[in-house]
Amino acid sequence: MSLPHGSSHDALLVLNAGSSSLKFSVYRVDADEQLHLLASGGIEELGAAAHFWAKNSRGELLGEQRWPGRAPAPAPGPLGHSGAIDFLTEWLREHNGGGMRLIGVGHRVVHGGLSHSAPELVTPELLSYLQSLVPLAPLHQPHNLLAIRLIAQRLPGLPQVACFDTAFHRTAPGVSQAFALPPTITAKGVRRYGFHGLSYEYIARALPDYDAQAAAGRTVVLHLGNGASMCAMQACKSVASSMGFTAVDGLVMGSRCGSLDPGVLLYLMDELKMDARAVERLLYKESGLLGVSGISSDMRALSESQDPRAIEAIELFVYRIGRELGSLAAALGGLDAIVFTAGIGEHSAPVRAAICRAAAWLGVELDEAANLAGGPRISTTGSRCAAWVIPTNEELTIARHCLALLSQQEEGTRHEQQHA
Ligand SMILES: Nc1ncnc2c1ncn2[C@@H]1O[C@H](COP(=O)(O)OP(=O)(O)O)[C@@H](O)[C@H]1O
Ligand SMILES: CC(=O)OP(=O)(O)O
Ligand SMILES: [Mg+2]
């Protein structure tokens, strides 16, 4: 691998593979190793009625395509992950008017376990270790790893970098990572890991530009997307998170239940005779906003509905965030700022307002007009605790890591050659 300085056509591909979607971004790497977004998009509803879209950095549509959903044989099956990678690599080739050369692919990998706390070049050994973590993130990890394998087949020899959602939380003190379980179980890696770390890392890096006091002090970041979690940061380092051993813990999510009395699991198994797979389906795919409302996992759809079940689901979502905020503020010993980010956090003014009202006792005083305008600061100037809206960018975090690692590698190779 070489990273020729001076070429204006080197590019990095970033992939975020989910259970039913493949999101991507492409960055041009300039001669000064600065990243410039060329395109971003996704293929959603894989395995059903797949839909591809791509936009340039100005938000203008570069391409769109739809595939038919399931149809009786002998019609071809719906587009899956493998077809999506083929389509995407072909689409990039076709749209490569400027002679762009891919120099690497960065991936979001949800679980890095205990031993991987920094981005790493993918090797067969790393891949097999990451495979062993699949049971800890069944909704995400298999798809992350499949994308890595498919790229290795389709674009052999291209360096791939795995960036872990768990890594940012490795700085948290031992006590915040521990469950009250016997050491024989803890030794097997049963502990709190925390997720959404690539998003929190982006916010931690951006925060000083918004609020120097919060960046040096005690901040809780609320990543409220389809998956949702909160992270307590002391001086921009993670000290606690609402997510634990798996990404089903903590807040109410799109279709995940969040924290649950473990006694419920025993009841489901003993009394309702549910096996592990049925419990997994219930907790990950049939609960949360979707399960409570019976309508949708999508906050936009629920916000537009007058159905009392939709209202109840949003109330529970907000209530649990309020309680978790109290817990994380306690872990920090006080609170200087809160930051809203991800789909719901960035776009839903009513949800932000409800959370800020629940946080009034912590000193949050909402500026209604600023909140409706989308921020960035949505608390009054006199508010004891500041409230911000900061858009996250997990893809840029991955691209930065990928570039740093590839450059470091090239530096190492040059050094070896000089001393050979
Ligand atoms: N304007 C909006 N109002 C309310 N919710 C919104 C709005 N825009 C996006 N969302 C919600 O954001 C969530 C998706 O967040 P996102 O961070 O994109 O998720 P993910 O990356 O985990 O798939 C969905 O629940 C969606 O309804
Ligand atoms: C970790 C996690 O919940 O990720 P996502 O928000 O992409 O589902
Ligand atoms: Mg997300």
Automatic annotation (TrEMBL):
**Where is it predominantly found?**
cytoplasm
Q: List the keywords (alphabetical).
A: ATP-binding, Cytoplasm, Kinase, Magnesium, Metal-binding, Nucleotide-binding, Transferase
Residues holding substrate: R108
Question: Domain of life, per the record?
Answer: Bacteria
Q: Where along the sequence does the record put site: Transition state stabilizer?
A: H196, R256
Cofactor note from UniProt?
Answer: Mg(2+). Can also accept Mn(2+).
Instruction: Tell me, in a sentence or two, what this protein's role is.
Output: Catalyzes the formation of acetyl phosphate from acetate and ATP. Can also catalyze the reverse reaction.
Question: Which protein family is it in?
Answer: Belongs to the acetokinase family.
Q: How does it assemble?
A: Homodimer.
In Swiss-Prot or TrEMBL terms, this protein is called Acetate kinase
Species whose genome carries this gene: Roseateles albus
